[in-house]
Amino acid sequence: MATIVYCSLNKTAQTTVGRCLTSHLKGIASRAPGESGLLPGARWFCRGTSVRFMSHGTAGRFAAGGARRGALVLSGAAAVTVAAAVAGVLANANHFQRAEMATRISLEKKEEEGEILERCRGFMSAPVTDISVLEKRKGDMRTRMEMLIMETQADFCKALEKVDGGTFKVDRWERKEGGGGISCVMQDGKVFEKAGVNVSVVSGYLTEEAAKQMRSRGKVLKGKDGKLPFCAMGVSSVIHPKNPHIPTVHFNYRYFEIEEEDGSKQWWFGGGTDLTPVYINKEDAFHFHNTLKEACDKHHSQYYPDFKKWCDRYFYIRHRGESRGIGGIFFDDLDSPNQEEVFKFVKSCARTVVPCYLPIVYKHLNDSFTKEEKDWQQVRRGRYVEFNLVYDRGVKFGLATPGSRIESILMSLPLTAKWEYMHKPAEGTREAEMLEALRNPKEWV
């Protein structure tokens, strides 16, 4: 059977065609970075005996109308020979570009119709909701969302464990008012000072304070005898690396459902992914934002520009007059055009958390840093803490909800941070460049 190779290469590799591997070479792609001499985190599409590798470098993305310009049809030994040639070229390419190209290749995930029990075997823990209940209401949005957030938690934790070499502590907790969660935390690792990936599935009645927050967002809620039954679930993560050249990343994707007095239900989704670097790196910023943009563009051309602006507005530290980081996407109360379409969009976003972040981690894994750079990281972490405790909607809602688990709510805070009185970086420094970008949000894509 012929193997089709699609290549989009930078100038260095324009004369090389692509990489084809027959099925007996698939094992190479699964080795740890460095073992195969190929690309860290590479993924392979396999259909029958053919394998497709698609590379999208910063300088070599597909041009409109020319996606198949570099396609060849090869078979047998010829495919392997070309694969070896391309591997040689790519091995000498820039590390970030190699990591970016490799990580942007994603395996198609098993779809919703997969068996609940079989999918649960790959999670960090059994789901919060009993598997028998999930099986009975397989098509219900609560079940589908819980499976998605459990899957997102597992995928991200395993990717982080691979690069760090450490292991997440898996901590299950229950909420007497209804539901519970799974907190996965890795502290003082080789790469990450603190990495937390939390899943929560809670239910009960909204408090008066929580209901006020909903009304302030334009939600008209009519409860029975002042009570509003609700179900809320989501996955959230904050990663604080040790190296100041590896950015902090945050993501959160959630679903909310409320039953009103007449038995009707209101529902909405929210979430986003954003990056908080200590120093500006334009390649990192482009990769991060472009990965999110591609996920958004699959669903609506206005999603990325609208949600990027929303992110810049939301993650803003008003008392400092600066953003928390360089943004990403953020949205809330999303309930149109319909539940199925919004869920598909949220699923696309959730599946970018590994490919938008891990290439940046690999790029800066062995970067050296000075004491002054570490001190600047600690100051920027102080700003991160200020935003989370003063403005973050999720933290405020969690603290206002009876039975909430404080440890899980505050897992987003770093192990270390500092506040220097009247701290101001010198003009012309990289620290001043970072501050300028935070005070004047930029378009990175």
Automatic annotation (TrEMBL):
This is Oxygen-dependent coproporphyrinogen-III oxidase, mitochondrial. Belongs to the aerobic coproporphyrinogen-III oxidase family. The chain crosses the membrane at residues 71-91. It catalyses: coproporphyrinogen III + O2 + 2 H(+) = protoporphyrinogen IX + 2 CO2 + 2 H2O. Keywords: Heme biosynthesis, Membrane, Oxidoreductase, Porphyrin biosynthesis, Transmembrane, Transmembrane helix. It comes from the Eukaryota. One of its GO terms (molecular function) is coproporphyrinogen oxidase activity. It is an enzyme of class 1 (oxidoreductase). Homodimer. GO terms for cellular component: cytoplasm. GO terms for biological process: protoporphyrinogen IX biosynthetic process. Its EC number is 1.3.3.3. InterPro entries: Coprogen_oxidase_aer, Coprogen_oxidase_aer_sf, Coprogen_oxidase_CS. Pathway: Porphyrin-containing compound metabolism; protoporphyrin-IX biosynthesis; protoporphyrinogen-IX from coproporphyrinogen-III (O2 route): step 1/1.
